[in-house]
């Protein structure tokens, strides 16, 4: 085994990052310029081989993607058996394994982790993997496969997939043949499950008007085309026009399009030219983020981000739960991060009267918190999120005897939503179908949806600092404990603005700090963001 790993590792050398710098498994796994990733991916293969054996030979997923990042980047992350993100303790092991200085050290680390965690290396191991459309994905898959071969791990290549599809497949594979079977273990199984749930969730209603879907020139494009083959336009009213679906020119990926572009630039993708009044939405490069938007003929561009999707979904499901007379039986809650617009938080708390949890940035934190509810709605403002239903909730939808046609309808739609909404991770395609279902039920346009509340103007600023690790936070990243004294200064600053709120945190994906600010007016929000950014810069350079 040792020799095999060492020999294979020699074909996938790790590129030293230089003095004191380490590869770290962050919020999105390992992500960087693709040419640094060959050795990293090989080593992640070793980690996945260990993880599968630790998890009683269950299948582990590995996804090769850099999501919304530029085409030249790539990334690799590990999916746990139920389709969740890799368990946090293992992130440290991943970092350790990837930074082993020599091939021999690597093989020794592999064995020592197995020993420490009582992993039987002779047990069977199983890993499945997929990749987005980046050309560098081919080579990285080969590196991954070499690690699986060197460790005699059974490997299945699902080729091109969206990230949420891989999460789906991992869960399906590990629940196959059990009472919790999640679906057929194939891409077709995914489309069948969603298209069938879509019809049930609509319950005879139809989507109206065209929906233009910007696929960021990423893997979402071909996958959405594929999905549409499973959907009857007549039955569902779904009239989708797929745009920015060019996967033949790799450099086009995420370039001036996609969910991240729309969210950060607060404008529609310039191409194709947006038609005023048409309902539109954008996926990111691996189709796990969704942002709705449209160009209003009178008032201009308007965006419905993750906060909006979250409050829409929460209000819809809470209404259904009341119609099903289950409000005393099932607890529904919403989970956000500090980036959620204050207006959305107030709307959910005061108007919808639902409990809210706030967690640090990163999907795994939100997901974990959402599991505490029977129905947990979680979204990051950037458009990543989903709705989790507990086994108890799903059973209740199925087993409750309806006392009226209205109650039956509510129970059926709730059960359908449980199948429509990806239970493993945020999924742009599945979330989009949910939004379409809700709009059809409410007979709403995007404008009706937008009118539910008004966002507070906000601004995000990126600040370069010498050492981002000097910035440490508490209270779900809403307050800084370090550098000492900075939080007081921020508080003083914030207190001068109407409805002002601001926080600073170290990025988990780049070497920089991010400052968020919101206030009653555009100019106040901009001003507050700049003032806090100056403070961060000043303390960062001290
Ligand atoms: C990663 C996270 C995303 C988060 C972002 C924040 C996952 C799968 N992805 O992309 O949820 O919003 O990082 O980036 O957890 P930042 O730390 O650089 O602000
Ligand atoms: Mg993504």
From TrEMBL:
<protein>
    <recommendedName>
        <fullName>Phosphoacetylglucosamine mutase</fullName>
        <ecNumber>5.4.2.3</ecNumber>
    </recommendedName>
</protein>
<comment type="function">
    <text>Catalyzes the conversion of GlcNAc-6-P into GlcNAc-1-P during the synthesis of uridine diphosphate/UDP-GlcNAc, which is a biosynthetic precursor of chitin and also supplies the amino sugars for N-linked oligosaccharides of glycoproteins.</text>
</comment>
<comment type="pathway">
    <text>Nucleotide-sugar biosynthesis; UDP-N-acetyl-alpha-D-glucosamine biosynthesis; N-acetyl-alpha-D-glucosamine 1-phosphate from alpha-D-glucosamine 6-phosphate (route I): step 2/2.</text>
</comment>
<keyword id="KW-0961">Cell wall biogenesis/degradation</keyword>
<keyword id="KW-0597">Phosphoprotein</keyword>
<feature type="active site" description="Phosphoserine intermediate">
    <location>
        <position position="67"/>
    </location>
</feature>
<feature type="domain" description="Alpha-D-phosphohexomutase C-terminal">
    <location>
        <begin position="460"/>
        <end position="534"/>
    </location>
</feature>
<keyword id="KW-0460">Magnesium</keyword>
<dbReference type="Pfam" id="PF21405">
    <property type="entry name" value="AMG1_II"/>
</dbReference>
<feature type="binding site">
    <location>
        <position position="288"/>
    </location>
    <ligand>
        <name>Mg(2+)</name>
    </ligand>
</feature>
<feature type="binding site">
    <location>
        <begin position="505"/>
        <end position="509"/>
    </location>
    <ligand>
        <name>substrate</name>
    </ligand>
</feature>
<dbReference type="Pfam" id="PF00408">
    <property type="entry name" value="PGM_PMM_IV"/>
</dbReference>
<comment type="similarity">
    <text>Belongs to the phosphohexose mutase family.</text>
</comment>
<keyword id="KW-0119">Carbohydrate metabolism</keyword>
<feature type="binding site">
    <location>
        <position position="286"/>
    </location>
    <ligand>
        <name>Mg(2+)</name>
    </ligand>
</feature>
<dbReference type="GO" id="GO:0071555">
    <property type="term" value="P:cell wall organization"/>
</dbReference>
<dbReference type="GO" id="GO:0005975">
    <property type="term" value="P:carbohydrate metabolic process"/>
</dbReference>
<feature type="domain" description="Alpha-D-phosphohexomutase alpha/beta/alpha">
    <location>
        <begin position="107"/>
        <end position="179"/>
    </location>
</feature>
<dbReference type="InterPro" id="IPR016055">
    <property type="entry name" value="A-D-PHexomutase_a/b/a-I/II/III"/>
</dbReference>
<dbReference type="InterPro" id="IPR036900">
    <property type="entry name" value="A-D-PHexomutase_C_sf"/>
</dbReference>
<dbReference type="InterPro" id="IPR005843">
    <property type="entry name" value="A-D-PHexomutase_C"/>
</dbReference>
<dbReference type="GO" id="GO:0006048">
    <property type="term" value="P:UDP-N-acetylglucosamine biosynthetic process"/>
</dbReference>
<dbReference type="Pfam" id="PF02878">
    <property type="entry name" value="PGM_PMM_I"/>
</dbReference>
<dbReference type="GO" id="GO:0000287">
    <property type="term" value="F:magnesium ion binding"/>
</dbReference>
<feature type="binding site">
    <location>
        <position position="514"/>
    </location>
    <ligand>
        <name>substrate</name>
    </ligand>
</feature>
<feature type="domain" description="Phosphoacetylglucosamine mutase AMG1">
    <location>
        <begin position="305"/>
        <end position="444"/>
    </location>
</feature>
<feature type="binding site" description="via phosphate group">
    <location>
        <position position="67"/>
    </location>
    <ligand>
        <name>Mg(2+)</name>
    </ligand>
</feature>
<feature type="domain" description="Alpha-D-phosphohexomutase alpha/beta/alpha">
    <location>
        <begin position="58"/>
        <end position="91"/>
    </location>
</feature>
<dbReference type="Pfam" id="PF21404">
    <property type="entry name" value="AMG1_III"/>
</dbReference>
<keyword id="KW-0413">Isomerase</keyword>
<dbReference type="InterPro" id="IPR049023">
    <property type="entry name" value="AMG1_II"/>
</dbReference>
<feature type="domain" description="Phosphoacetylglucosamine mutase AMG1">
    <location>
        <begin position="203"/>
        <end position="290"/>
    </location>
</feature>
<keyword id="KW-0479">Metal-binding</keyword>
<dbReference type="GO" id="GO:0004610">
    <property type="term" value="F:phosphoacetylglucosamine mutase activity"/>
</dbReference>
<feature type="binding site">
    <location>
        <position position="284"/>
    </location>
    <ligand>
        <name>Mg(2+)</name>
    </ligand>
</feature>
<feature type="binding site">
    <location>
        <begin position="380"/>
        <end position="382"/>
    </location>
    <ligand>
        <name>substrate</name>
    </ligand>
</feature>
<dbReference type="InterPro" id="IPR016657">
    <property type="entry name" value="PAGM"/>
</dbReference>
<dbReference type="InterPro" id="IPR049022">
    <property type="entry name" value="AMG1_III"/>
</dbReference>
<dbReference type="InterPro" id="IPR005844">
    <property type="entry name" value="A-D-PHexomutase_a/b/a-I"/>
</dbReference>
<dbReference type="InterPro" id="IPR016066">
    <property type="entry name" value="A-D-PHexomutase_CS"/>
</dbReference>
């Amino acid at each position: 085994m040792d020799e095999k790993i060492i020999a294979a590792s020699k074909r996938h050398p790790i590129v030293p990052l230089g003095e004191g710098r380490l590869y770290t498994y962050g919020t999105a796994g390992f992500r960087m310029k693709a040419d640094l990733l060959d050795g990293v991916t090989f080593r992640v293969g070793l980690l996945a081989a260990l993880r599968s054996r630790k998890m009683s030979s269950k299948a582990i997923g590995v996804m090769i993607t850099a999501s919304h990042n530029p085409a030249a980047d790539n990334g690799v992350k590990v999916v746990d058996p139920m389709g969740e993100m890799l368990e946090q303790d293992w992130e440290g092991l991943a970092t350790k394994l990837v930074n082993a200085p020599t091939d021999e050290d690597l093989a020794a680390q592999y064995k020592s982790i197995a020993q420490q965690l009582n992993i039987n290396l002779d047990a069977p191991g199983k890993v499945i993997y997929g990749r987005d459309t980046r050309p560098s994905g081919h080579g990285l898959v080969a590196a991954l496969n070499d690690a699986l071969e060197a460790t005699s791990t059974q490997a299945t290549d699902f080729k091109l997939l969206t990230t949420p599809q891989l999460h789906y497949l991992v869960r399906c594979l590990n629940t196959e043949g059990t009472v919790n079977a999640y679906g057929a273990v194939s891409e077709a199984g995914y489309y069948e499950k969603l298209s069938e749930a879509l019809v049930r969730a609509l319950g005879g209603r139809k989507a109206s008007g065209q929906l233009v879907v910007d696929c960021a020139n990423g893997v979402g494009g071909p996958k959405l085309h594929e999905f549409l083959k499973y959907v009857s336009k007549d039955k569902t009213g779904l009239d989708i026009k797929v745009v920015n679906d060019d996967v033949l020119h790799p450099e086009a990926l995420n370039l001036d399009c996609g969910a991240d572009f729309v969210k950060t630039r607060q404008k529609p993708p310039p191409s194709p030219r947006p038609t005023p009044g048409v309902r539109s939405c954008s996926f990111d490069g691996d189709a796990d983020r969704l942002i709705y938007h449209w160009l209003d003929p009178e008032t201009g561009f308007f965006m419905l981000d993750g906060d909006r999707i979250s409050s829409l979904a929460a209000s819809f499901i809470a209404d259904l739960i009341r119609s099903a007379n289950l409000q005393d039986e099932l607890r529904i809650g919403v989970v956000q991060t500090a980036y959620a617009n204050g207006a959305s938080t107030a709307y959910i708390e005061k108007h919808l009267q639902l409990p809210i949890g706030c967690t640090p940035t990163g999907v795994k934190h939100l997901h974990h918190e959402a599991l505490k509810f029977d129905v947990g709605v979680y979204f990051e403002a950037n458009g990543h999120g989903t709705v989790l239903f507990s086994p108890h909730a799903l059973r209740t939808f199925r087993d409750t005897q309806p006392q009226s046609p209205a109650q039956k309808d509510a129970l059926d739609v709730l059960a359908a939503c449980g199948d429509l909404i990806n239970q493993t991770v945020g999924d742009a395609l599945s979330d989009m179908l949910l939004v379409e279902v809700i709009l059809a039920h409410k007979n709403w346009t995007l404008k009706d949806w937008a009118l539910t509340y008004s966002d507070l103007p906000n601004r995000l600023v990126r600040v370069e600092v010498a050492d981002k690790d000097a910035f440490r936070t508490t209270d779900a990243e809403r307050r800084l404990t370090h550098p000492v004294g900075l939080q007081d200064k921020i508080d003083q600053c914030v207190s001068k603005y109407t409805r002002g709120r601001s926080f600073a945190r170290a990025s988990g994906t780049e070497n920089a700090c991010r400052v968020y600010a919101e206030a009653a007016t555009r100019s106040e929000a901009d001003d507050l963001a700049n003032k806090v950014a100056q403070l961060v810069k000043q303390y960062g350079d001290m």
